[in-house]
Design brief:
Arc Repressor Mutant, subunit A, 10 helices
């Protein structure tokens, strides 16, 4: 950020940064990084382009800032998976949380998906240094639950991929879902279906 000082940002500065980031989220999730422009971000924020450049060096800094904030939010449900909890209920809770996030934060989901589809140029280090250790740790917990007979014998890594794909589908393919389903809000049926599907998959064989 330009003109950075040690002083706490004013209320107006905080508001303007929020307006810029909110506008940028919509622009990036709709147009992708390549198609997004500072002009479109400024217009959506109700600010001039020079005003946007007062707060951020350029499009890349805005994009990286958004991704950094998103990744922390995106990781929270996985971090909260409790090894001391009931395995099936912990994983079903994770499914519910991920689906809620997809339904409530579709633009954020599309932003993340767009970055991954481009080969993760801005978050490659994050995937390697932050997500990978956490992913391995949680997969190990799931494998321990399986070994203890508390879960069905599933592949932990591919279970996680299945959870991510089925929940984020409701955000990333929302336009298709709105055409194919007659109801305006698919949330209730989506929750019911995914819970039923994963409960059957995860329930240990007695």
């Amino acid at each position: 950020m330009k003109n950075a000082t040690a002083k706490k940002p004013s209320r107006i500065q905080t508001r303007n940064r929020r307006l810029i980031l909110d506008s940028a989220l919509e622009v990036f999730s709709r147009d992708g990084f390549g198609g997004a422009t500072l002009d479109a971000i400024a217009k959506g924020a109700g600010l001039s382009k020079p005003n946007v450049l007062y707060y951020f060096e350029g499009k890349t800094e805005i994009y990286v800032t958004l991704l950094s904030q998103l990744l922390e939010t995106w990781l929270d449900p996985l971090v909260e998976l409790d090894p001391q909890g009931d395995p099936v209920e912990e994983l079903l809770g994770y499914v519910r949380h991920k689906l809620d996030m997809a339904l409530e934060l579709p633009a954020e989901s599309k932003l993340f998906a767009g970055e991954i589809l481009q080969g993760a140029p801005s978050i490659a280090d994050y995937l390697k240094n932050d997500l990978k250790p956490l992913f391995d740790k949680k997969c190990s917990i799931i494998q321990d639950w399986i070994a203890q007979g508390k879960l069905a014998d599933v592949d932990p890594a591919h279970l996680m991929f299945s959870i991510w794909s089925t929940t984020q589908h409701y955000a990333d393919f929302g336009a298709q879902i709105s055409v194919l389903l007659s109801e305006e809000d698919p949330a209730a049926r989506a929750h019911q279906h995914l819970e039923q599907m994963f409960r059957r998959l995860l329930a240990p064989v007695n």
